[in-house]
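User: Fold this; tokens only.

Assistant: Input:
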Amino acid sequence: MKILVTIYLAFAFLIASAQSGIPAGFTPLFNGKNLQGWHVSRSTHQGTTPSFTVQDGIITGTENPYGQGGLLLTDKKFKNFELYIEVKIDSFSNGGIFLRSSESGVAYQIELAEPSGTGGFLGERINVSKSPDISAMKAAWKPNDWNTFRIKIVGDTPHVTLWVNGTQIYDVVEPKNDLIAGETSGHIALQCHWTALFSDAAGVGMSLKSWQPGAKHRFRNIAIKEIKE
């Protein structure tokens, strides 16, 4: 009986994964119910009180209070992997998907910024030595809708490939490892950027327009496939 129950649960899991859109061979990082396996950073410059909540199988992130952002990180660290994640972001908001992140948010990132910048491969607290061409993003992106991201990162010197809605946006090999102290693994994180509330000058580019009041970033069907070198 125990064997039959185990087989049934495994089969049910496969059905649920298929129905959710997660590709075969990927392991969910988000259970669709709560933030088990994730935590908010208490040491990032973005802020330490972002609002990340779960409802109807969706993680929703926003500034809390307005002006203060933050990071939601996986408890586990990863090195070589392919990440699958579905994203819906409001206009006039700025965040990112962090790769190989430190607890404080030093990371490579895929930028999530509307009305411009989405898909760019940038650094957070680091300078990325080679930026890719994201011109293919314009045709692939669906504004104000759900978009599917597949992000692959492998190698001590990162080789990063991004697909959005099935379209390859770029495939870039960095000239060097840009992370501090040559780190080669880290957390996956979801970022709500902070916003300067007092003046545009204080924002150093993060003006009031970077995150409109009440704007949200939404994430669902988050899964990973670790890759062995």
